[in-house]
Amino acid sequence: MRRFLIAITLFFTAAGLAPSAMAQEVATPEKIALVKRYYALVKLDKMFEQMFDRMGPAMIEQIKARDPNVSEEQTRLFLKVSGEATTQYLNKMMDRSATVYAEVYTLDELKYMVSFYEDPRGKAMIEKMPLVMEKASQIAVSLMPEFQDDLMKRMCEVTDCKAPKATKPKA
Q1: Would you call 55 exposed, middle or buried from its count of C-beta atoms within 10 A (0-12, 13-18, 19+)?
Q2: What are the structural domain ranges in the chain?
Q3: Which residues make Cβ contacts (< 8 Å) with residue 47, sequence separation at least 6?
């Protein structure tokens, strides 16, 4: 669950909320409304729901690893409660981050973002994004052993240790 929340936070950072040297704009109600429209157009809530749905089985595995006596009913309840908590957290995060977007982007920039995603080309990008993300995830998984080996090698160069070989991910 912690990784999920970190991933969401990183998403918002990568999506344009990183600190900027730009002058801060005023977060007017009109701009905040445009940000929320942008969120709806890019289906931000659905993206987060899908992330949570994909993480559910891993969370259940972790729970069962800690306590093998956990019942199916308990795991079902855990997923339900964690889903509700996550939805509440995401709604707060989107509401609060809308103000940040409205402070970072000008009114014209926000209008353009919304118009782009209302355009058929913008809609096509959103519709195709799950396929891109799936393929990009496969690439990331395939590169993980190489990354882990390189990271261990670099760590050992600065800490004088013996680097173990990374294990290949299960298919």
Answers
A1: middle
A2: 2-118
A3: 129
Cβ contacts of 129 within 8 Å, gap of 6 or more: 47
The confidence score (pLDDT) of residue 23 equals 59
**What is the number of other CB atoms lying within 10 angstroms of the CB of residue 24?**
9
On whether the CB atoms of residues 110 and 34 are closer than 8 A, the answer is yes
Taking the C-alpha atoms of residue 16 and residue 36, their distance in angstroms, rounded to an integer, is 15
Distance CA 109, CA 23 (A): 14
Cα–Cα distance measured from residue 121 to residue 115, given in angstroms and rounded to the nearest whole number:
10
**Between residues 158 and 19, the one the model is more confident about:** 158
Q: Measured at the alpha carbon of residue 13, what is the angle toward residues 7 and 15, in degrees to the nearest 5? A: 100
Please state, in angstroms and rounded to a whole number, the distance separating the CA atoms of residues 59 and 78: 9
Q: pLDDT by residue (tens digit) across 90-137?
A: 889 889 999 999 999 999 999 999 999 999 999 999 999 888 888 988
| Tokens 């891109």 found at | 132
| pLDDT single digits (tens) 20-55 | 445 588 999 999 999 999 999 999 888 877 777 777
